[in-house]
Structures are given as C-alpha cells and as structure tokens.
C-alpha cells in the first residue's frame, strides 16, 4: 500500500468515526444487555469457549494414559521387558 493510499484510509476511518460516533460504541455485549435471551446466549458461548480447551487437554491426557496402560499390559511379567541384546564383540 502506498503512502497516499494509507493516508486516505486513515482519513476515511477518522471521518467515519466523527460522523457516526454511535457506531463506535456498538459491541456484541452492549447491544443486547437488556434482553435475557441475548445474555443467556452470551453466557453459554463464554462457557463453551472456556471449556473446549480444557476438554481437549483432558482428552489428550486420557488417550496417553490409556496408551501407557496398554503398553504396560503388553510387557512380559515383571513389567520391565527384555534388555536389548549386547553387540557382538569382534576383533578390533
């Protein structure tokens, strides 16, 4: 974007803010604060957005724990498995 186009964009934004100051105060939370349905919807949306990452982390922990238990159950008695064979000693 050229300097002239940037200056024009800034001027247009400032002009719009000065000509319509009410639009600058509009927001999703302020617009429906008098309506119980809108307040309830915003509360449900906040809960959903807050609990989704926690659920994803919990799911990841559950999957890793389940995988670790399956691997531990697949090991022979003693739970440690067998040591890898030592390399064959050859002439040096």
Write the layout of secondary structure elements.
Elements lengths: L2 H17 L1 H4 L3 H4 L4 H39 L18
Describe this structure in words.
The protein is elongated. The longest helix is centred in the middle third of the chain and has 39 residues, at 36-74. The chain has helices spanning 3-19, 21-24, 28-31, 36-74. It has 92 residues and is mainly α.
For this entry, give a set of tags.
mainly alpha, elongated, 0% strand, 92 residues, 4 helices
What's the short story on this structure?
The protein has helices at 3-19, 21-24, 28-31, 36-74.
Percentage of helical residues?
55-70%
Q: What is the N-to-C succession of helices and strands?
A: HHHH
General shape: elongated
Radius of gyration, in Å, reads 31 Å
Could you report the average pLDDT, rounded to the nearest whole number? 80
Low-confidence stretches are: none
Q: Tell me how many strands there are.
A: 0
How widely separated are the two ends?
A: 69 Å
The fraction of residues in strands falls at under 5%
**Contiguous helical run count:** 4
């Amino acid at each position: 974007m050229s300097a002239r186009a940037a200056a024009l964009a800034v001027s247009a934004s400032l002009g719009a803010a000065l000509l319509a100051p009410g639009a600058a105060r509009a927001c999703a939370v302020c617009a429906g604060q008098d309506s119980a349905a809108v307040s309830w919807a915003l509360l449900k949306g906040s809960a959903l957005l807050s609990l989704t990452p926690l659920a994803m982390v919990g799911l990841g922990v559950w999957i890793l724990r389940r995988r670790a238990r399956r691997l531990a159950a697949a090991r022979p008695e003693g739970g440690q498995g067998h040591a890898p064979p030592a390399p064959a000693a050859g002439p040096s």
